[in-house]
Amino acid sequence: MAMNPAATFPQAASHDLTHGDDTSKSGAIALAVLASLVVAAGLAFMVWGPVALTITGLILVPLMFIFFVTISWPGKSRRED
To answer: Mind listing the pLDDT tens digit for each residue in 27-64?
Structure first.
């Protein structure tokens, strides 16, 4: 089946992070930081073994506590009826 060279196809949307909204840009940055931390933890495990996982877990406990307090804190997202 030969393709028609004169056929036009719709252009895909450009996903340029520099011209997108702040939400997609911050989401991409957060994902990149998270991926970097996971890679660093994996490399640390390869070098130091289970000690690296123990230290990582000890660091993550207060961070998870702060995260859960932050997302549950009453703020501007509540509707005012």
So the answer is: 889 899 999 999 999 999 999 999 999 999 999 999 99
Residue 20 lies in a domain: no
Helix 50-72 vs helix 22-48: crossing angle, to nearest 10? 150
In a domain, 49, yes or no: yes
- The conformation of residue 10, written as its DSSP 8-state character, comes to P
Domain of residue 57, residue span: 31-72
Average pLDDT, the chain: 80
The DSSP annotation for 20-68 comes to: S-HHHHHHHHHHHHHHHHHHHHHHHHHHHTHHHHHHHHHHHHHHHHHHH
